[in-house]
Amino acid sequence: MALPARYSRSLDWVTVGIYALMVGLGWLTVYAASYSPDVPTNGSLFGNLSFQQLMAFDWFKQILWIGTAVVLIVVLVVIDYKAYDTFAFVLYGIMIALLIITPFIARPIGGSRSWLELGPMRLQPAEFAKFITALAVSRYMASINLRQQNFRDQAVLAGLTLLPPVLILAANETGQALVFAAFLLAYFREGMSPLILVILAAGAIILILALLVPKLWLVGAFTVILALVFAANPKVLRHHLPLSLSVWAVVIGMVFGVDFFFNNVLQDHQRKRIEVLINPSADPLGVGWNVTQSKIAIGSGGFAGKGFLQGTQTKFDFVPAQSTDFIFCTIGEEGGWLGTTVVIVLFMALLGRVLYVAERQKSVFGRTYGYCVASILFFHFAVNIGMTIGLAPVVGIPLPFFSYGGSSLWSFTVLLFILLAIDAYRKQDLVR
């Protein structure tokens, strides 16, 4: 399906090329992860299998998803680019309604109620909530009277950002909810105070340390640091004592509140995943099995890998979800260090190009949306690879354009090509 000349000339073909290369490599990886040497092929890709038999394989269904993604791309770039700005809040309202009803009508799959079944297809509304929220917050950020230092604007922006993940958590889909933290990077680019990022980062570090270090040691260390600051600069003691004591009290509350959150808020499987992250040998045959086998697969690939379709960990299904959340271990086993490096370089190239495209936008809407795209892609990339090598807890986040799944591929395709559609007409935008 070809694009009209007036559309094709203005598209950023470098980004399109990177996307096509990643999707192609992603399909090869899904094929390798779901390939079975016991299935007769008679020298052809489909062999003598019927359509119904082929639909049992992830690699075949991924071909169908890729085909429909191409149709989506054409639709996205042909639609009037102003529609994304104009209907952003309408789409957001529809998405919120869908997230509200999903837990009530979806049947439980893997412990969550987040999948809608439409005949032979299953779609996950949480995947699409990311790009729709990006459109809504970009539309709001583009408002003429927006001031990020204004409390009302900050509250509205926080509400737009936090409502979808709260509803996603209600469906017991923690991983997808965490992705919305990535929007902070886009807000920082548009003028959010860096103090907010510093406070959030410090809070996260304190919570992590509270799990790793004895609490009395942590409280003692923070108290000593605060005392040294007062001793080195007495003016701080005189002018900022109430604020400093308030910060000290908040930190103490966080340190001793971790246990309550860990034991009473988190679900059992979430607690076990964090325990395994801290101590990999805590449950090697249970919750720790996925990560242990994933690291074995990646490590066994060595420098150049075992070769395409030669991965033993992959072939014998040692790693669960190896074509979805743990697709990166297939890359590591069959492609080795070289294969994983190629994938990482591709992601770096895509992220760099998206940031370049975002910076050349003439509208606040286009620039903010571009940074939302980069932030979401980076979060998925970093967390997915981190969890496959044991540096992040297993939270069920797919690797963009590589993991099997129609909802995943569609959502990332729409996320990216809305930006390219907006970029294609950046010269027609009025600077807001």
TrEMBL record:
What is one process in the GO biological process aspect for this record? regulation of cell shape
User: Sorted alphabetically, which keywords does the UniProt record give?
Assistant: Cell membrane, Cell shape, Cell wall biogenesis/degradation, Glycosyltransferase, Membrane, Peptidoglycan synthesis, Transferase, Transmembrane, Transmembrane helix
Main subcellular location: membrane
What organism does the record attribute this protein to?
Answer: Hymenobacter cellulosilyticus
Please name the InterPro entries in this protein's record: Cell_cycle_FtsW-rel_CS (IPR018365), FtsW/RodA (IPR001182), RodA/MrdB (IPR011923)
Q: Is Glycosyltransferase a UniProt keyword of this protein?
A: yes
GO terms of molecular function: glycosyltransferase activity; lipid-linked peptidoglycan transporter activity
| A UniProt-annotated Pfam family | FTSW_RODA_SPOVE
Q: Does the keyword section mention Cell membrane?
A: yes
**Top-rank lineage group of the source organism:** Bacteria
Record's PANTHER family?
CELL CYCLE PROTEIN, PEPTIDOGLYCAN GLYCOSYLTRANSFERASE MRDB
Q: Report the GO terms under cellular component.
A: cell division site; plasma membrane
What topology does it adopt in the membrane?
A: Multi-pass membrane protein
This protein is called what?
Cell wall polymerase
Write the gene name: rodA
Residue intervals passing through the bilayer: 12-33, 59-79, 86-106, 166-188, 195-213, 219-236, 243-262, 336-356, 368-395, 401-422
Q: Where in the cell is it found?
A: Membrane
